[in-house]
Amino acid sequence: MKLFFGEIHDNHATLNEEESHHFTKVLRGKEGDIVYITNGEGTLAKCEISQLSKKKVEANILEIQENFQQKPYYLHVAIAPTKTMERLEFFLEKATEIGIDEITFLQTFHSERRNIKIERIEKIIQAACKQSLKAYTPKVNSLMKFHDFIDQDYQEFSKVIAHCRDDWDRENFKTYLSTQPSKIILMIGPEGDFSAEEITSALQKNFRGVSLGTQRFRTETAALQAVFAVDWSFRPE
């Protein structure tokens, strides 16, 4: 299955300029080819290429599926970006393949990085969606200060903060997931962990402290383990 991103209309679909160039120049695609096109919002269309140029490829829709492989949960990960971008990009790629719905980058007291190139992040996520044949593209939010993030209204979500402080009450993350929360916000801190003041502030905003295990992980490892845990908790037995 060849998957592309584009606009889907009643009976036809159109690839954007970047995808059109990739189809015509890189893949040497031609009229009559059968491809799959998604709008990144859950719609997947089986299409036949009808007209192509370097900047615009159009296709007739043969079959269409709504809510393609929609997950039974919504996972929003808020993470402090790592100093090395390759590590963060690895997490984003794998988390997209496994199943994540939204990502926010946090500026915390111990943050090692205070700038993010959103355009590059979106390209990495889109490539991961195409590789894993996903019709839902995770939403990418800009870098946000920690306190601005926890002040947002997330009434429909179960909110947790993963931290490493043994002297604070923390619930095992797997135990927490056994209650099957369907909308989850998970905060993952930087290498130096969240500060005591940040943890206190989050708990006052009704975030629950959780532990990801007895081992101490790198930021991206902790986040990836949490994404795996959420996905597995919703898989049928």
From TrEMBL:
The entry's keywords: Cytoplasm, Methyltransferase, rRNA processing, S-adenosyl-L-methionine, Transferase
Keyword Cell cycle: no
Chemical reaction(s) catalysed: uridine(1498) in 16S rRNA + S-adenosyl-L-methionine = N(3)-methyluridine(1498) in 16S rRNA + S-adenosyl-L-homocysteine + H(+)
Domain Ribosomal RNA small subunit methyltransferase E PUA-like intervals: 15-62
Signal peptide per UniProt: none
A Pfam entry, by short name: Methyltrans_RNA
Ranges of residues in domain Ribosomal RNA small subunit methyltransferase E methyltransferase: 70-228
GO biological process: rRNA base methylation
Annotated GO CC locations: cytoplasm
EC class name: transferase
Location of this chain's protein in the cell: Cytoplasm
EC annotation from Swiss-Prot or TrEMBL: 2.1.1.193
Keyword Phosphoprotein annotated: no
GO molecular function: rRNA (uridine-N3-)-methyltransferase activity
InterPro entries xrefs: Alpha/beta_knot_MTases, PUA-like_sf, RsmE, RsmE_MTase_dom, RsmE_PUA-like, tRNA_m1G_MTases_N
Domain of life: Bacteria
Free-text function comment from the UniProt entry: Specifically methylates the N3 position of the uracil ring of uridine 1498 (m3U1498) in 16S rRNA. Acts on the fully assembled 30S ribosomal subunit.
Family: Belongs to the RNA methyltransferase RsmE family.
Protein name: Ribosomal RNA small subunit methyltransferase E
Organism: Weeksella virosa (strain ATCC 43766 / DSM 16922 / JCM 21250 / CCUG 30538 / CDC 9751 / IAM 14551 / NBRC 16016 / NCTC 11634 / CL345/78)
